[in-house]
């Protein structure tokens, strides 16, 4: 391909990208979730794991979180089973569905078993040889495609120079890609305490042909014993999926310039109860309290305000709970969840939620219990005879 043709294709593509996406640039209506690898493309191999299996498990959990809590967002999967999907087809799916964000989930691997942690990539110029090495490893999947020379204009995944042209195509979406990538890293690092390898730019082909902001998340190194154990566990997969989901909610609120909405986990809770037993899902007996709550009846229907979630339990006398009344904890879906207040009246709980929001807990929301057992808000209102 001549230099003139390359320039012309680049200019035409930029014009098309701006034309197609300008009208919906400030809305998040459709998200494409991409589970890396699949089928005969196993991806990275750990001692006891395959990348393709872990990425699919995380994406399916992430899909469920979005379905249940973001009713106005359509979710599209590039694959929902162990199927090989070419990289260009993954991008085509996102483009045909007019997606507003593309999220590709992967696991990392290296020759050293001591390397660990999470990193999130956006399309861009290579900033280091380390970034380039990761991009080459993921891009090598195109060699398994029958027509990769035609589909990728003769692109050589082992060529550093070949990546530069493709990186330029994503500049129009770089700011939003970086915004979401930063939120993903924050959730994975600050909330799950995973080692922070940063937000980086690299030339991933799965991102190059997508006409929208996009990120590629390396959720950990399955070449590392600790990371692999975490990512192989149902608890770990659920926590990673939830972190990506939380970042998505924050990103949506930011680009749509609206105040954060309270999280609602009622539907997720109901799903856990109606389906097959989740061995990591619920352990309500691990509930503790720092103060005397309003309710003394151990079987009463009560309302609390959930304000924090942590992957590990926090001491009930921790200074992070200073100034918060009636702090209690319960264990659910692999996380320790903390609540304030304990009321028989739903409206009183709403007042406490408002108070918690004013303290900076923007995602605080009301949850209901019957004794120590979590129930839905609807069931609690029915049992208490209130509408």
Quick take:
With 387 residues, the chain is α/β, with parallel strands linked by helices.
Describe this structure in words.
With 387 residues, the protein is α/β, with parallel strands linked by helices. It folds into 2 domains: 253 residues, Aminopeptidase, CATH 3.40.630; 118 residues, no CATH class. The protein is 40% helix and 21% strand. The protein contains 13 helices and 12 strands. The strands form 2 sheets. It has a 6-stranded mixed beta sheet with strand order 2-1-3-6-4-5, sandwiched between helices. Strands 7-9-10-8-11-12 form a 6-stranded antiparallel beta sheet, with helices on both faces.
Q: What can be said about the biggest beta sheet?
A: 6 strands, mixed
How much of the polypeptide forms β-strand, as a percent range?
15-25%
**What is the overall silhouette?**
globular
The side-by-side strand order for the widest beta sheet comes to: 2-1-3-6-4-5
**Helix-and-strand structural type:** alpha/beta
At the third CATH level, what is the topology name of the largest domain?
A: Aminopeptidase
What is the string of SSEs from the N terminus onward?
Answer: HEHEHEEHHHHEHEHHHEEEEHEEH
> Could you tell me the number of beta strands?
12
């Amino acid at each position: 391909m001549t230099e003139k043709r390359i320039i012309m294709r680049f200019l035409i593509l930029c014009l098309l990208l701006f034309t197609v996406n300008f009208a919906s640039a400030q809305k998040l209506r459709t998200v494409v979730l991409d589970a890396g690898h699949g089928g005969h493309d196993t991806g990275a191999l750990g001692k006891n794991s395959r990348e393709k299996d872990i990425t699919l498990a995380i994406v399916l959990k992430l899909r469920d979180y979005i379905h249940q809590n973001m009713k106005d967002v359509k979710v599209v999967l590039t694959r929902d089973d162990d199927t090989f999907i070419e990289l260009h087809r993954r991008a085509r799916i996102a483009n045909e569905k007019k997606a507003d964000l593309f999220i590709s989930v992967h696991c990392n691997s290296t020759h050293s078993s001591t390397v660990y942690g999470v990193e999130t990539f956006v399309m861009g110029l290579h900033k280091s040889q380390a970034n380039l090495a990761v991009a080459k490893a993921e891009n090598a999947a195109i060699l398994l495609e029958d027509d990769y020379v035609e589909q990728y204009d003769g692109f050589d995944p082992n060529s550093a120079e070949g990546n530069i042209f493709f990186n330029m195509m994503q500049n129009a979406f770089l700011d939003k890609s970086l915004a979401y990538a930063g939120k993903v890293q924050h959730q994975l690092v600050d909330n799950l305490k995973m080692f922070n390898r940063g937000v980086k730019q690299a030339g991933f082909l799965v991102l190059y042909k997508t006409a929208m902001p996009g990120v590629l998340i390396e959720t950990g190194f399955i070449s590392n014993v600790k990371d692999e154990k975490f990512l192989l566990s149902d608890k770990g997969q659920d926590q990673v999926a939830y972190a990506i989901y939380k970042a998505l909610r924050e990103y949506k609120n930011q680009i749509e310039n609206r105040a954060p909405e309270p999280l609602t986990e009622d539907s997720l809770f109901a799903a856990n109860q109606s389906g097959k037993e989740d061995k990591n899902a619920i352990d309500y007996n691990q509930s503790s309290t720092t103060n005397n709550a309003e309710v003394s009846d151990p079987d009463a229907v009560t309302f609390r305000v959930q304000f924090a979630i942590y992957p590990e339990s926090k001491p009930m006398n921790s200074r992070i709970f200073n100034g918060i009344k009636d702090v209690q904890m319960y264990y659910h879906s692999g996380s320790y969840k903390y609540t304030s207040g304990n009321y028989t009246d739903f409206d009183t709980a709403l007042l406490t939620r408002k108070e918690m929001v004013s303290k900076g807990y923007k995602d605080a929301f009301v949850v209901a219990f019957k004794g120590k057992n979590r129930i839905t808000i609807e069931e609690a209102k029915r049992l208490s005879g209130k509408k």
